Each structure stands twice: as C-alpha cells, then as structure tokens.
Amino acid sequence: MITIPEAIASVKNNTNRLVQPTTKPVEKANGYYLYEDVLSPINMPPFRQSAMDGYALNLHEDLNYNLIDEVKAGDGHQPILKQGEAVRIFTGAPVPDTANAIMMQEKVSANNGSIKIEHQINLEQNIRPLGEQVKQGEVALKKGTKLTPAGIGYLLSLGITEVSVYKKPTIAIVTTGNELIEPGQELTYGKIYESNSKMLLSALYSLKFYDVTIYKVVDDYNQTVDILKTAINANDLVMITGGISVGDYDFVGRALNEIQVKEVFYKVKQKPGKPLFFGKKDDTSVFALPGNPAAALSCFYVYVYIALQNMMGIETNELTRITGTSTSKFLKRGDRPQFLKAIYTNGEVELMEGQNSSMLQTFALSNALVFIPEEISEVNVGDELEIILLPV
Q1: Contact 355/378 with Cβ under 8 angstroms?
Q2: Sign of dihedral through CA atoms 380, 382, 387, 389?
Q3: What is the pLDDT of residues 74-105, one digit of tens each?
Q4: What's the distance, Cα to Cα, between the start and end of the chain in Å?
Q5: How many other CB atoms sit within 10 Å of the CB of residue 280?
Q6: Which segments constitute the MoaB/Mog domain (predicted)?
Q7: What is the pTM of this model?
Q8: At what angle do helices 221-234 and 252-259 cross, to 10 degrees?
C-alpha cells in the first residue's frame, strides 16, 4: 500500500502526452489543443470598418458637411467623398477610402441633406483599420492554444473551417457485477441500479472528453478477461469500476494479470478508495476504481483527472487546491488520510454529513473535496483546511 503523494507521482510519471494530430472541423474543436500554429488567411478586419453608427467624414475645418450617400454593413460600393462631404454609416460597414474619420450619430445633427458635428475629431477616429486584429499570414493562434468558444468564433471569422489538433484520448468505462441492472428496469430483490458508468461518463463530458465507450461485465472470469482485453486494446485509457477487491467473485485483478497489464500500484492509504489499482499495458493507462460510487468519483478527480491532463500535455494537471476555514466539526476514524465531500463558499468550507464511500447524495450537493491528512484526527470550527475545487 502506497501513500497518496506516491500514487499521484506514479500517475504523473506513467502517463504521457498523446502526440498524434487529428483534423477537426472548427465548430467541433472546443476543448482541443492546437497541434500547430494557425496562420490567418485574411486580414481581420478585411477592410477599414466602422466601429459605430454615425457619419463617415472627409474632414475639413468647418463643422458642417454635405451628406451624399449611405453605407450599410455588407455594402460593396465605394462612395467617393470630397473634403467637407459625409456618408451615413453603420457599425461594421466598410469605410470608404476617401473618408478619414467617423463621428458617432449622438454628436451629429442632420438637416435636409447636410449635417453638423459638435466638434472636430481626430484622423481615423472610430475606424477599425485593415488587419487591426491580425494581418494576412500572421499567427492567429499559437500551437498549444486550447480552443474555447471564443477561439472557435475567432477562427471561423477568419474563414478557417478545419484545424489540426492534438488527439484526445479514447476512453473505456467498464462496469462489473451481477447485481447491476439498468435504470428503468424493474428493481428485483438483490439488484441495484448501475450508476457508475453514466456518472463517470458525465464527468468526462464535463471535461470535454467525448470519445468514450461503455462496457458491461457480469461476474464471470472468462468474460472479464475478454472484455478487458478488448477495451484495453482499443483505448488510450480504461476505467474499471468494481471487482478489484479480493472477494471470491472479484475477477478484475486476476484478469488484468492474465492480460499482462503491468501494475504500477495497487491500494492507496486513503479513505475512500483504498483498493485503487493503476497499471499500464503498452501505452494504455488502466485504472481499476472502487465499486462504491462516491469512492469511484473521488478517485477519478484525484488520480484519473491527472492522467487525462497529462495525455493532453497540460502542465497544470491537478485540480486547483486552496485553503479555507471550516464551519464544521469532524472526527476522523482510523489513521488513513481522507477526502471529504464539502461545500466551499467565499473562503469557508462546510463538511457534509454522510461521508460513506457508497453515498452520492451529499456528493451531489458538493463542489469540493477537503483533504484531511493522516496526522489530523479532529476538525473544529475555524480550522484551516486544504480544499480541492471540483470542476463545475
């Protein structure tokens, strides 16, 4: 049995970045990291552009101008302005080459084909210059940039439809147990509804990992071997829930050994999640999580999250840890460090009731885990605690 820091270090040291590129449509690349620099194919804006509704002017010394035309967004014509002439213009419209400033409409009075501006303005005022954001051929976004909705909008505004990005891991979730049935079926005596697979799937989706396959295994050794072999051969990361303990019908450990998954560690001095397994088969990372739902989800956030971030090449690969003041009391039983479900708000943290590893009710209300180290046996109101903020 190893310590939590040793387990975290082992995960970090045994998962590597996926270096294969893949091409994605820009609109489907949210959460991916650019594999190479993206060069702008155009100037943005591609023409001198009005920053507001108003009047484009060919400046002269007088405050009065003759109004000769109108330019809307999308117009392709080019009115020619002489000194002292103006055109009505709207936000985003192309500014005529012969105009050299725009006065906002709130500072203009119009009357029978002429306008009067309130005061003189500077050359090029309220005009977005050609290529203000990026010029043709310049780097629009650098290699390694994480694509966000704003980044996707930016690339699409440049006319870019596809990008080369780092491949995200393919992931398998394997659930084990004769007692498990699908929600919606009749709950007969001795059965429970299976929730771990969809819970972990939801956690992955929230982190923008979408290439996920779910496998179901009953308590049969040969089937366990076959399904795990299939999942491990087809994926970059495999999560197994249940079957990793030492009961007569816990076949996962034996199956992983037969498949020749190399054990990195098995069992961590922690609560919940002591019977956690992490191993490697070629380049595939394999986690065997506890079957209890709260324990499985805690291990996902503390360990699997790190592996996923490493695979994406993200240097900050742990969830954010901060300190906060306890508003609760807690008595820790035993000598194992614990991860407690909690609610963190404005510097204060409330420890939840119902910390049992099988209980999801309080986890459903939590936005944080509190880490209680081995040497601390009691938490009192006012104590400073280490907090792991969960993804929202």
Answers
A1: no
A2: positive
A3: 999 999 999 999 999 999 999 999 999 999 99
A4: 32
A5: 15
A6: 172-310
A7: 0.81
A8: 50
